[in-house]
Design brief:
Layout: H1 4-33, E1 35-39, E2 47-52, E3 58-62, E4 67-70, E5 78-80, E6 90-93, E7 99-103, E8 106-110, E9 118-122, E10 132-140, E11 146-154, E12 157-166, E13 174-175, E14 184-190, E15 194-199, E16 204-207, E17 215-216, E18 225-230, E19 236-240, E20 245-248, E21 256-257, E22 267-272, E23 278-282, E24 287-290, E25 298-300, E26 308-313, E27 317-322, E28 326-331
Antiparallel strand pairs: 1-28, 2-3, 3-4, 4-5, 6-7, 7-8, 8-9, 10-11, 11-12, 12-13, 14-15, 15-16, 16-17, 18-19, 19-20, 20-21, 22-23, 23-24, 24-25, 26-27, 27-28
Length: about 325
């Protein structure tokens, strides 16, 4: 006969086994949903830019002229030779073959998925009255029309904004006049007509006519804005210094600040995959996530204190890059 004491001991053993199994399951789920860390390069050099064409093919780039390519969603990386040693600020592909790099005042392009790169243009201080050009961000509205934003400086002091335009696929570039002299850091385009530029002192510029004219939006902040991301012609977001998060539902005509207690430091990049789900990365390993179109944000564990400079999210995975060759990858 089984006594009550034996039944009690069996119950305890079964309960402990169930608890252990649930704990193991929880650990596995957390690991699958977390950010996995890898490093590229010899160390000591930052990765500043990331771009993915789809869920598998992507590139990262950064200090020392380093460029890395993946064909399997970031599981393995192959270094590509560019022929420069300057820090790369941005890279962008308008299709699977044609891409562009920005490094200092240089523009480089590829027509073979990055297997070979050539310098298209190098802007020199003599062209700007002795001011040093720095190119930060490049985007194309279609195969022919593209824009680059940056600044002009003297002795490390920004003296003017810089906007460059191409109508021939990047073969030649001309400067455009815009209604600000503040530093411009990032731009985004949706379709052929609508584009946005963000920068220092809360600057947001908008075009509705394919870049023929730019107007300055009214924004209730003077914080530097480092990144802008539009999902479609209406829904967009911008992030910047002092935990600044802005969102718009009317194509950038008006911007609403988002108060997020978890966002106190500098936010450097934002990416939305649909109207609800978005992520932000920033200094000190900051990763934030929203599931309500950016109205509220929660902090995610990144496992690092390195600065995270750039982020891209696709339907299946995310990749963030940062200090000391850091690559963080997330599978949804």
């Amino acid at each position: 006969m089984i006594t009550a004491e034996q039944i009690g001991r069996r119950f305890v053993r079964v309960a402990v086994a169930i608890i252990c199994a649930l704990a193991c399951l929880s650990v596995r789920v957390q690991a699958q949903q977390g950010w996995v860390m890898t490093r590229l390069g010899a160390g000591g050099q930052d990765l500043n830019a990331v771009f993915f064409l789809d869920n598998r093919r992507g590139w990262v780039a950064g200090d020392g002229g380093q460029v890395w390519r993946t064909e399997d969603g970031g599981r393995s990386w192959t270094q590509q030779q560019v022929g420069i040693t300057e820090a790369i600020n941005d890279l962008y592909f308008r299709d699977k073959e044609n891409g562009y790099l920005l490094a200092g005042g240089r523009i480089l392009s590829t027509a073979d998925s990055g297997a070979t790169w050539r310098q298209v243009r190098q802007f020199l201080p003599d062209e700007f009255g002795g001011a040093l050009p720095e190119l930060y961000s490049v985007r194309f509205a279609n195969k022919k029309k593209g824009w680059i934003v940056g600044n002009l400086s003297r002795r490390d002091v920004v003296t003017d904004s810089l906007v460059l335009f191409t109508a021939d696929g990047g073969a030649t570039w001309q400067r455009q006049n815009v209604p600000t002299r503040d530093e411009l850091i990032h731009l985004d385009f949706v379709g052929d007509k609508r584009g946005w530029i963000v920068g220092d002192k809360g600057t947001i510029l908008r075009t509705l006519d394919g870049g023929q004219t730019w107007t300055r939006a009214r924004v209730n902040t003077n914080a530097t804005l480092y990144h802008v991301d539009f999902l479609n012609e209406d829904h967009g977001w911008a992030v910047g210094a002092r935990g600044t998060i802005l969102r718009t539902d009317d194509g950038g005509d008006t911007w609403q600040p988002v108060v997020a207690t978890v966002a106190r430091g500098t936010l450097l990049s934002i990416s939305f995959v649909n109207e609800d789900d978005g992520w932000i990365v920033g200094r000190g390993g900051t990763i934030l996530r929203s599931s309500d179109s950016g109205r509220t944000w929660v902090q995610q564990e990144s496992g690092t204190k390195q600065n995270l400079y750039a982020l891209v999210m696709t339907k299946k995975r995310g990749v963030a890059v940062g200090g000391d060759g850091l690559v963080l990858q997330y599978e949804r």
